[in-house]
Amino acid sequence: MSNSPRIISLVPSLTETLFDLDLQDQLVGRTSFCIHPHDKIASIPSVGGTKAIKMQKFKDLAPTHVLVNVDENPKSLAEDIEALGVEVVVTHPLTPEDNLPLFRLLGQLFGRQEQAEKLCDQFSSQMDQLSEAVKNRPAEKVLYLIWKNPWMTISKDTYISKMLGLINWQTVGHDPNIRYPEVTLEEEGIAAIDRLLLSTEPYSFSDKDVKELTKQYTLQNTSISLIDGEMTSWYGSRAIEGLNYLRKISDKK
Q: By the 8 A CB rule, do 241 and 233 touch?
């Protein structure tokens, strides 16, 4: 590109992806939730959260491009940024396969086509290995919890549900009108599923929660366990590692 872009990422998983596309020198801002890569991210200024930013600090960084996501950032925030004359790059991957056009979009925008194709190759390789590993694995019903008080889960049209579907884990609790609906935990309902999964984000479920639920419900055929939310919900370059993670945990009961 003739003029070097100045990028602010308001999406944690895309911030990490920019580093993997060798765009760290063009990344001038991020959110406080952008935590990867751990050893490099501290040098990038934070402009606030994913829902609200410190607008003056944002302006002072003089970005040319801002990365947002339909689920993570309010539309009004994107519109306010666009009104400043900054190019807003809107992303909304809904399936694991959407990572391929995402890599290529960023590569094309910022002159990193070669690096983008490398990520595509790595992703496709992991996808092939995962497909081969689970091709004869029976389907399982899973309830994937993302929040506590109230309990919340994911609908079938979410990226997370599609990721879990790659290992034939079929999510329950779907609401056609709400992407992240509230649910009630009743022993009869839990007994009808194979796995109760407690995600480490956005709510930080821990081993304590696993122990409490295991004690509360007397279940013989349902396992209760933690699952790494970054591996299931972070699209972008983290999804490559996520596919390998799914292949490994699908073998565990």
A: no
| 140-145/169-171 β-pairing | parallel
H or E stretch at 2: none
pTM passes above 0.90: yes
pLDDT tens per residue across span 47-87: 999 999 999 999 999 999 999 999 999 999 999 999 999 99
Q: What domains sit in the chain, N to C, each tagged with a CATH number?
A: 7-123 (3.40.50.1980), 137-249 (3.40.50.1980)
Cα separation, 138 vs 9, whole angstroms? 39
Sign of the torsion angle spanned by Cα atoms 26, 30, 35, 40: positive
Q: Where are the beta strands (DSSP E) in 185-251?
A: 195-199, 223-227
Where is 91: in which H helix or E strand? strand 87-91
CA distance linking residue 55 with residue 214, whole number of Å: 45
